[in-house]
Amino acid sequence: MPETNRELLVQTRQLSVERGGRTLVDSADLALHAGEILTLIGPNGAGKTTLVRAILGLGNITRGELYLKPGLRIGYMPQTLHIDASLPLTVARFLTLGGGDKHRAQRALERTGAAGLLHQPMQALSGGETQRVLLARALLRNPQLLVLDEPVQGVDVSGQAALYALINELRHELGCAVLLISHDLHLVMANTDTVVCLNGHICCHGHPEQVTNDPAYLELFGHRAQAQIALYTHHHDHAHDQCGEIDPEHSHHA
Amino acid sequence: MPDFLLLALGAGLGVALVAGPLGCFAVWRRMAYFGDTMAHSALLGVTLGLLLDINLNAAVAFGCLLLALALVALQRSRQLATDTLLGILSHSTLALGLVAISLVSPGRVNLLGYLFGDILATTAADVITIWLVGALVLGVLAWLWRPLLAITVHEDLARVEGVRVSAVRTALMLLMALVIAIAMKVVGVLLITALLIIPAAAARRLSHTPEQMAITASAIGALAVTGGLAASFYWDWPAGPAIVLGATGAFVLSLLKPSRF
């Protein structure tokens, strides 16, 4: 991996989160460097969201250390968005709530493939549209780090692949790092540098190829995972056929 | 127009102007029941004020704020749902207020006035207090408008983007306590939430932006006050309930407009 000479953005050391006597995250060590995509995978209740919330300062850390690069600009895309129907809020207004003006908002929407939505009310958006608007709001922060919690929720299968491809494109364009939570394996793996497999503690981590052969990973995800690796490989080839230079880094170490 | 009616109008319009935008936040953030609970605790504030012989408005605002903080502390325990906690606090504080006030000064206090408002007995000093406090509340609301909207839309997102969420939320509670203190004179503790919620709800269908909705709510509140006082003057309706019915009328009329976002 070339990331060793890149700037360190986030590092956790033995980070643990306990709530109500239960350990949700157990001694997690992870490091994220500039320009890198790190994907957290794991079953439901594995503590993925808890760990990410701790990194974002949204939840308490029981033990351990968290380092964030001083002044790190984070663009955050939350898992869900519920805006009460009584609040008249257009997409433009939603986007400018995080800072910036309408023109920047429109450019961000164009970048996430949602250009026509600027004057729509937030409550009228479909699941996929909401995700693209949330991604646009994260982009408006000029992020050095994009944090995405299950970004493809409520998006149909073909849309999911497109959204992940978009995230990968954006990462190269902006040179930002990406911290991604996902539970669907094959789509994510084509576009990621490091996979961290979490189940309370970190079971295994490394390149996608490395992790998918790890016994701890196979134990956690079993045959379903193996079936998806086949899918993943297929998808991976397919993506390269269409746009060969989209992921130069990936081919570099593939 | 007789003086007492002018003073009543001055007080009512002052409260309606602040209740508009603040009521919008109560609706957007689903705080209707919360506002009710705070308002019910106002009676305890009155008792406290009488006991300690301090300014009643200040005592009421203080009492409401205390209740809000107690609620925040109780919510941390997560054993009971928020609406259960609100139900307990709302009715217990009202009952406690009624008992306390009858023990502290039996016969001396116009209980009905506190419960349903006593706007026709407004003094010039009341009007000045209402406008001063109202101006303060509007000023703070304008100053915190964007962070308030940001935490209403998504608290975590706002926090990651640098908004100091708990400070802004506490400020909103403080503003609510202040408005309840000045609105008590106009509609009484039992009807205050109506003055917050109904004009804002009526403004929803007439608005396309949050700011439009806030201003429209103020205007509808002002109309309700004017109409209610007129009904009180000409037909001898009780003024507080008449004002609330005025707002309800506006809400029903707003339903005639076709729904849209």
UniProtKB/TrEMBL annotation, chain A:
Transmembrane regions listed in the UniProt entry: none
Pfam families noted in UniProt: ABC_tran
InterPro entries (alphabetical): AAA+_ATPase (IPR003593), ABC_transporter-like_ATP-bd (IPR003439), Metal_Ion_Import_ABC (IPR050153), P-loop_NTPase (IPR027417)
Domain ABC transporter: 10-224
PROSITE patterns: ABC_TRANSPORTER_2
Keywords per UniProt: ATP-binding, Cell membrane, Ion transport, Membrane, Nucleotide-binding, Translocase, Transport, Zinc, Zinc transport
GO molecular function: ATP binding
Name under which the protein is recorded: Zinc ABC transporter ATP-binding protein ZnuC
Gene encoding the protein: znuC
UniProtKB/TrEMBL annotation, chain B:
Pfam short name (any one): ABC-3
Regions that span the bilayer: 50-73, 85-104, 124-145, 189-206, 213-233, 239-256
Statement: the UniProt record of this protein carries the keyword Glycoprotein: no
Family the UniProt entry places it in: Belongs to the ABC-3 integral membrane protein family.
Cell compartment(s), UniProt: Cell membrane
This protein's name: High-affinity zinc uptake system membrane protein ZnuB
Protein purpose: Involved in the high-affinity zinc uptake transport system.
Topological relation to the membrane, as annotated: Multi-pass membrane protein
Key words of the record: Cell membrane, Ion transport, Membrane, Transmembrane, Transmembrane helix, Transport, Zinc, Zinc transport
Taxonomic source organism: Gilvimarinus algae
